[in-house]
Amino acid sequence: MLTQAFFRALDRKAIWLVGILVALAILVPAANLLIPVGQPGHVPVYVVTLFGKYLSYAMLALALDLVWGYCGILSLGHGAFFALGGYAMGMYLMGQIGDRGVYANAELPDFMVFLNWQELPWYWQGFDNFWFACLMVVLVPGLLAFVFGFLAFRSRVTGVYLSIITQAMTFALLLAFFRNDMGFGGNNGLTDFKEILGVPVQAATTRGALFAATALALALSVFVCSMIVNSKLGKVMVAVRDAESRTRFLGYRVEYVKLFAFTVSAVMAGIAGALYVPQVGIINPGEFDPANSIEVVIWTAVGGRGTIVGPIIGAILVNMGKSYFTGALPELWLFALGALFVLVTLFLPKGIVGLLGQYRAATARRSSAATEAGTDPQPEPAE
Questions:
Q1: Considering the entire predicted model, what is its pTM?
Q2: What pLDDT digit, counting tens, does each position of 156-172 carry?
Q3: Dihedral angle at the C-alpha atoms of 46, 51, 56, 57, nearest 10 degrees?
Q4: Cα(125)–Cα(91) distance, rounded to whole angstroms?
Q5: ∠ CA 187-263-84, rounded to 5°
Q6: Cα–chain center distance at 78
Q7: What are the strands, taking DSSP E only, across the chain?
Q8: I need a surface site. Which of 235, 255, 308, 316 has the fewest CB within 10 A?
Q9: Using CA atoms, how far apart are residues 148 and 170, in angstroms rounded to an integer?
């Protein structure tokens, strides 16, 4: 039974995508560590880190696609779950600094010493253990999503109203985490990380390991999402997206279907945030900015929502463009991003993947028509 579920989950696109991600997890760190600098095929450390960040974003976009593309829930607050996972990992990394901080305090982070805190708050207890931090990476976003989703879906909040509420949630968290008395570093957030699992964060081997972990986590997320959407539950999710009232009339508990998808999606987003933080070296309240959540929607729309591959392609391509244009044309980037969203909405409603699918279908129709035309009897030449 498990074997059947495994093969049913891995359709052809998922197999290719998982295979590519596993290959990248092996080849990219190897190209950085084993090929000497200056030799063909060498991948610099900064490229490893940059694409590790892109893969974290891709995992976040895939998490949003699970609820938006397959369940019809347009969440404008997924950046909150991403940031909460990042803060959980950042708290662990701050605990590994020890007495190597600016104030050489083995117990308190530098920002707490600066603010005259005398002891760690109770909610920082346990974060000196990696396993506890990993548990919080999953539990905190998942619990928030469960409580929020239970209240919202039970009240049958849908459409633009639900989108606004999710945006309000992330904005409220933004304001809360900006406060110094919250104990999360205020405006500056958490930074100056030294070690993770006893090894330097800045070391090339650590960067390669973090990239590999991100690629493998994304591959696992692809498998989980594919398994969900190709199951009977996935069919019900699509039914909820397309005709919620009819699905409810058939006897399905629509709120439970939505709650499941929303909670799983939040957990994925939290894991993506936890993988993101040690690679970029900082987490601050800016990650809660509602504009970040809107960007995730743009990535998903560009790649093609309602697909597994599309959000990953969209996240990587848009962020590659962002990395280039924010350096070349920084004052125009936001206008370009807004124009991209408008153009995709008007002319590419199914995104890049949908466009490719339409092209393949059109090519197949032309090929079929040409084949049929070739089999028709030819008229006799006139004498």
A1: 0.91
A2: 999 899 999 999 999 99
A3: 110
A4: 10
A5: 15
A6: 9
A7: 190-191, 195-196, 199-200, 282-283
A8: 235
A9: 12
